[in-house]
Amino acid sequence: MAVNYGSKRVVTGAHYGLRDWLAQRATGLLMALFTLVVLAQVVFTKGPIGYDKWSGIFSAQWMKTLTFAIIIALLYHVWVGMREIFMDYVKPVGVRLALQIFSIVWLVGCAGWAIQVLWRL
Questions:
Q1: Buried b (16+ CB within 10 A) or exposed e, 5-33
Q2: What does pLDDT average to over the chain?
Q3: In terms of residue numbers, what domain contains 112?
Q4: Number of folded domains in the chain?
Q5: Does any domain span residue 5?
Q6: Position 95 in a domain
Q7: Looking at residue 36, which CATH number applies to its domain?
Q8: Separation between Cα atoms, residue 112 and residue 106, nearest integer Å
Q9: Where does 1-121 have alpha helices with state H?
Q10: N or C terminus of the chain: which is more exposed, having fewer CB within 10 Å?
Q11: What is the pTM of this model?
Q12: Does residue 12 belong to any structural domain of this protein?
């Protein structure tokens, strides 16, 4: 005869808290390192910083590729943060879904605009 001492705890939810926490830290670190790279290029650029110099910083293919990767990291960072806010504070499922869809559309639009600006330099 089996003895059951209490009920078995059932954990509900999506089970991606640690993954999201790590993603937030990793993308935040990547963005911080990118900021240091851009600051170093600005500091070591001789003369006044105008459009030509600023455009020159981002005209190299390696910088465009790095910037593209950071844009993707930024979008993921924002998405994880907004999704967590919506899941924690917006209780009506329909409103939460509408906000998440709006966020996805907005972030994709921002990505398209950022990439367009980046490759137009």
A1: eeeeeeeeeeeeeeebeebeeebeebeee
A2: 88
A3: 19-120
A4: 1
A5: no
A6: yes
A7: 1.20.1300.10
A8: 10
A9: 17-43, 51-57, 61-89, 93-120
A10: N
A11: 0.79
A12: no
